[in-house]
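Q: What does the assembly look like in three dimensions?
Context provided by user:
Components: two
Sequences:
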Amino acid sequence: MRVVASGAPEIEPNVLKEAAHWLVRLHSGEPGAVDDAALQRWLDASPQHRRAWQRAEQLLGGLQTVPTQAARAALDRPPRGPSRRGAIARLVWLPMLPTAAWLGWSQLPWREWQADYRTATGEQTRVTLADGTQVLLDTASALNVRYTGEQRLLRLLAGEVFITTAPDLRADGTPPQASPRPFIVQTPDGTARALGTRFTVRHDDAGIWDKSRSRSHVAVFEGAVEIATGGHTRRLDASEQADFSASAIGPVSAVDEALEGAWRTGMLIARRMRLADLAAELDRYRPGLLRCSPEVAELRISGAFPLLDPERSLRLLAETFPVRVHYRSRYWATLVPA
Amino acid sequence: MPFSESAPHQQVRSLYRDHHGWLHGWLGRKLGCAHRAADLAQDTFVRVLSSRLPNDLREPRAYLTTIARNLLADHWRRLELERAYEQALAHLPEREAPPPELRLQMLETLRQVDACLQALPAVTRQVFFLSQLDGMVYADIAAALKLSLATVKRHMSRAFLACLSVA
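A: Here is the predicted structure of the complete assembly.
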């Protein structure tokens, strides 16, 4: 039996409206949408403001902790009556979204839950595929594996993977065919075909629906990789790396082995890296928001930062550099001048 | 819950005396469970107590079942949510599954969010889910759903206000 508690003091409707206004800006994804100082002034202006913010923090923050697919299954149900179809069917119901074709392929974000291999934020995992290929998944990554008789195909849906290809042994251990099957990694931007190698592929899905902002990146450590996209191909040899989008392949540059792929050891090696860029990297490994105030964004940081323990990295930053970590809530931290 | 013997409360007491048993039976048939029916029957009268009874209640049973139907809808909604949640958790790979001590807390959060969003139109809910569950930025949501950026912001504003108002 539910009993309504009337102890909590009410919050005025216009305070709720103001809080909603701040929330809309905070979650927009537009950089600079929220002036931190102005928000702080609003929070300080009245205990009602703080209470409203706490309500939001508790509810929305709590929602962030629920595994995405479980939250969607629970909340995104057809409005009327119990349905006979299971939760899995509902996850793909979204009639308004456009369908997409491959090479130009964009997967809808929540399809990552169907990925064969996934890592959560701050997690890394190592996988061995049927032919002996080793794949290391970085934080917040999702990968599909489609080995067929003709090719070994991986689809990188999100994040970054480090791949060490194996000679094409079959699952039953019998020796490979005369010519090994091609090994291909697809991202929404194009493909990277391995020519016996160790390499990383990264996909930044900053613009899933705005193709012009979607980018992938390949860095080769051993062997060679051929990138194919939008009618262009380009071979990268060992110690070479390049970005590519659905329409173009960027300039080839040299791989700095200490930096590139250092995440494989769980460390980020910074060499005069902008604090804003470092914060963006740590943010990928840390649940919640990590932002950097403009006053300190251009600070150059050098050092080794443990990616799998982002809080420790933040402490290291505060100890070594003239910055301080300001926690607005459990989920929202900002780097500010000390 | 202490209350004095004022006229409205006398009215509720006789309502209870005359119809509680019947309501319990009615709910039992709807729910297929006498125990749950007893809970909901009690909840119905709690609601009656906190609402203003019309002076001349012509159809007491119709009045009670109207309240009870709302409670039933809430009940089924909660059950559905819980089932969908449990089912989705069961499909998660081992290393992603949340530990038991957190599951209940998460379910409670989902119930609260569900209660906040339930009266919102489907599009508003979808915009909210794309933002809060899938982490999409508003520009991408606008492109995905073929809405203007301003419209996306309006939907988010409505959804956030709903969350703040009920929590």
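Follow-up: Chain A touches chain B through 59 residues (CB under 8 Å).
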